[in-house]
Amino acid sequence: MLFLDVRALLGAALFSSIVIHSAAAQTREQGPWWPHPIWGAGDQAGASNWITPDKIIESIKLVKTGKVYELGHIYEASMPLIEGRSYTMKLVRTSGPAVGTNNAIFNSELLVTEIGQVGTQFDSFGHPGMRLEMADGTTKDVYYNGFTGDEIYSETGLLQLGVENVKPIVTRGLLVDIAAYKGLDQLAEAYEVKLADVRGALKLQGQSEDDLKAGDALLFRFGWESRWKDESMDLLNAPGIGLEVARWIVERKISLVGGDVGPEVFPNPDPDLFAPVHQELVMKNGIFLLESMALDELARDRVYEFLFIFTPLRIKGATGSPGRPIAIS
């Protein structure tokens, strides 16, 4: 596979800005995106707060046929990986000595991987951040709701902003089939989806942006699911949304944004920016990303509205999570 080597860009603050930004007045208590204007200082649940009991009841009513759609890929060694990431599983106990008069035997395994950053992956708040110059002249790595690297870094996991703080995501899901709107099997590499594309796809599906509600999960199909086992696929040269669509998503109070690759366009059309959509959605506004999904079956059945379920594993201190996202129509 061909991959962009991003290890030099990751450093201590994942997806932090290449340039150190400065603003005269920002402190730990007050900055350009913190404290959160709705959920306040200290919040670590972000847009999962939109998913209230009423939202869940409303979403469950969408189920008419009971058909379940698997929206995640199987985790296996052959899946595409960004350079520097790994996935290794070994059976460490296979059919050992039988135990007891009933001859009981057991298998177990050892899994070594970047937990939330391989395969179908959920990006939470300890993942993207930004390096900033503070009012007192110090430089800080800053994340969602103003949490700093000083507060969260630990060799054994994040001390704050771990994925265990995210509430279960049981909500209304909407598929936006951009590839179908463009009349393509798959979008071209590094194609930036514009707001006009989103509105056009919704209209083609008999919907409009006015149909979006607070707490919805918005899933974009770019047509790249078929390339999942293609050895030439480069996850960092994929189509996706840019800042125009990201800011529109923020206005609509979406809880989660997904795509059949990473929802963000890579590389960014502005070569001076790296992963600005991660920063805009996750870091600044507490909206989660779910990458490398399987959306073709939904598209084939023209299921554009459904009950969406994804519950991140409660791994204390993790930056993200694997999982099994499903849609029920």
Architecture overview:
With 329 residues, the protein is of the alpha/beta class. It has a domain of 212 residues: 3-Layer(bba) Sandwich (Glucose Oxidase, domain 1), CATH 3.50.30.50. It has eight helices and 16 strands. A nine-stranded mixed beta sheet has the order 2-16-14-8-10-12-13-5-15. Helix 6 packs parallel to helix 7. The N terminus is likely disordered.
- Enumerate how many helices there are, as a single number: 8
Distance between the termini: 36 Å
Would you state the CATH class of one domain?
Alpha Beta
Helix percentage range: 10-25%
For CATH, the homologous superfamily of one domain is named as: Putative cyclase
Unreliable segments of 5+ consecutive residues: 1-19
Shape: globular
Q: Beta-strand level of the residues, as a percent range? A: 15-25%
Which CATH-level-2 architecture of one domain?
A: 3-Layer(bba) Sandwich
**Extended strand count:** 16
Average pLDDT, all residues = 91
Q: What integer value in Å does the Rg equal?
A: 20 Å
Q: Kindly identify the CATH topology of one domain.
A: Glucose Oxidase, domain 1
Secondary structure category = alpha/beta
- The H-and-E topology, N to C, reads as HEHEEEEEEHEHEHEEHEHEHEEE
Instruction: Describe the largest sheet.
Output: 9 strands, mixed
